[in-house]
Amino acid sequence: MGMLLIIWFLILAGAAVLYAFSFWRLFEKMGVEGWKGIIPVYNFYVLLRRLCRPAWWLVMLLLMPVLYVPYSMAVAAALYQGTLPAALFTVVYFIATVVWIVFMLKTEYALAKAFGYGAGFTAGLFLLPIVFYPILAFNDARFVQPLPERTPGVPPRTPVPPVPPQA
After folding, report:
1. Where are the domains of the chain?
2. Is 73 helix (H, G, I), strand (E, B) or coil?
3. Residue 6: strand, helix, or coil
4. pTM of the predicted model, to two decimals?
5. Residues with Cβ < 8 Å from 49, sequence gap 6 or more?
6. Whole-angstrom Cα distance, residue 57 to residue 80?
7. Cα separation, 143 vs 38, whole angstroms
8. Are the C-beta atoms of 18 and 130 separated by less than 8 Å?
9. What are φ and ψ of residue 32, in 5° steps?
10. What's the helix, strand, coil split of the chain in %, to 5?
């Protein structure tokens, strides 16, 4: 049993080191200091800003980890007592999961597109990140700064003209 734990620890530590190197290199390819890629949460914020996505998307991307603990407690309560709030929270968690998947896919599609890849590479980033993030980080693809997204039907903002001095 002890040897199995050591093996799992070494595998997880190796994956963490691979992720750290990959994100460091990926951020350098995007023109950002590499150390910003290995700081949890901040790296997603910097990534979103570099991909011209709104900063509030960070809240949506953190939705799953934040809701996981209350969800686990609600499921335990539902199994123990069968309460309605636990069932209601399960529905809310399911909706949050769908929202999280949509925002992750949109973010990873923007990242893949910025490096010249398409939907297939996006699926790889989402389903096999341990393989596709190092590929993205260590291949010859170049980062192309995407244009900011516009809401359809809303005209682009124009700068406010300066106010003339009063005489």
Report:
1. 10-138
2. helix
3. helix
4. 0.76
5. 55
6. 36
7. 19
8. yes
9. -120, 150
10. 70, 0, 30
Residue 114 has which token pair?
């910025």
Of residues 68, 69, 66, 88, the one with CA closest to residue 78: 88
Q: Which element (helix H / strand E) includes 81?
A: helix 63-81
- Report pLDDT digits (tens) over 71-81: 777 666 666 66
Closest CA to 121 of 102, 101, 99, 141: 141
As a residue count, the chain comes to 167
Chain segment 94-129, per-residue pLDDT in tens? 888 888 899 899 999 999 999 999 999 999 999 999
Long-range contact set of residues 142-146: C-beta below 8 Å, sequence gap at least 24: 142/29, 142/115, 142/116, 143/29, 143/30, 143/31, 143/114, 143/115, 144/114, 144/115, 144/116, 145/50, 145/52, 145/114, 146/51, 146/52, 146/110, 146/113, 146/114
- φ, ψ of residue 54 to 5 degrees: the values are -65, 145
DSSP-assigned states of every residue in 7-22: HHHHHHHHHHHHHHHH
Q: Encode pLDDT of 23-80 as tens digits.
A: 999 999 998 899 999 998 899 999 988 888 888 888 887 877 777 777 777 666 666 6
Q: Are 107 and 51 in contact (CB under 8 A)?
A: yes
